[in-house]
TrEMBL record:
Bilayer topology term: Multi-pass membrane protein
Main location: membrane
GO molecular function, one term: transmembrane transporter activity
InterPro entries associated with the record: MFS (IPR011701), MFS_trans_sf (IPR036259)
Signal peptide span: none
Keywords: Membrane, Transmembrane, Transmembrane helix, Transport
Descriptive protein name: Major facilitator superfamily domain-containing protein
Transmembrane segments: 27-46, 84-105, 117-136, 148-168, 232-261, 267-288, 295-316, 322-344, 356-377, 389-410
Cell location: Membrane
One GO location term (cellular component): membrane
Highest taxon in the source lineage: Eukaryota
Cited Pfam families: MFS_1 (PF07690)
Amino acid sequence: MDKATLASSSILGILEATHLTANQYNWLGTIFYLGYLAFQFPQNLALQRFPVGKWMSLNIFIWAIALCGNAACKNFAGLFAVRLVLGICEGSITAGFMIVSSMFYTRREYTARVGYWYLMDGIGQIIIGFISFGALHVHTTGLEPWQWLMIITGTITLITALSFFFLFPDSPTNAWFLTEDERAKAVRRIKENQTGVENKHFKKEQSVPFAFRLHRYEFVSRMIEAFMDPKTWLFALYAAFVNVPATVVNQLQIIIVSFGFSPIQTTLLGCVYGVIGNVSIFTGVTIASRFPNSIAWVGIAYFIPGLLGVFLVNFLPWHDRVGLLFSVWITITTGTSFVLSLTWMSQTTAGHTKKVITNATMLSAYCIGNAAGPFMWRAKYKPRNHVPWIVAGVCYLTCIVLLFSIRTLLARENKQRDAEPPDESFDDVHVVRIDEDGKRTEVKVSKEFLDLTDRQNRDFRYVL
């Protein structure tokens, strides 16, 4: 919802109040993702070093202050600064959510769970549509409707930050809502993932058997492995291409107004975009969860409505405003494919550190796509916007090819591993445990808790 405040403000008076040109408005969309990009790796390293929930709480708190600060901005420079801060803080959220989700849920559950929390993106679109509708009816001498929108959403975010600090768990091992026995069971139940549990710098006397010290050499070697893995770059390319056309979200209200709808009507029509997005994500993750190894095919299928929308918005008569509106709405289905790609990438990457690096690489590419996208919505292409819509169509076709390529690569790797003899390299690993009395005992550690990468563990099979 916070990310949608800029788009909603575009019809609430921010353009006139801060004297923004079309190019400056596009830059406000871009700077958010440049901040996100610049701090993506530092944020992911911080998620590796500090408790995940607490680190995200700090970022959400700073985010809330910056969002409220939007209301005090009088010009492009002020908005540019606060949007940069928002992007920096955003860098911790998706990566943090993915890390925690993979520690609580099995690979069979993971796709649906990520889809469920991603449904809130659509819910946010719906809620902010109604808040914008209400803000248009607020008439005060000191604040304009767009400023009220920033203050209201900023206050909600501040409450969220406090809730995160006290309620959001860092991992199953310190989840306040689980008993000691349930915590142990929560760790054991994700054994089938063979991806390990959160791995930071633990003390030598650490008594939790699956927690190991990650030495600097190991960190560097796993970082190199992540960068040398071809699927890392295929997922990154996909994230970049799929998010170039996703920037239509920042232009949505402006586009709907150009079809001939009033600002009041546009605030409510924007809610429909969120509803369609939610239905799309829910059905997509449900299908992918119920049919094994179907993620790539489901992702490809959800690009078809997007391609149809691009075709219609380019060729329908300009006076058919309802048809044009529906054409734009159905392009949101492509967002389902991106959600599925996030879950797919996480399920095909094992080893906490490698997963952090891979997450950061993919989300950096996500930022590049979102940063580049706003500049295709230039004033000279309005009102039909043929050029940006054609670019969107090309991006969708490219994404289909990339999804197919990733599936082919992983299927070939699975077939190769099936032909290999059983891997016994890590079947006899012991660690020394020191109890409170100083007594040293050796404990055998199951392979599933060794935090091995997907390349180290030849028993690991890739989800397709």
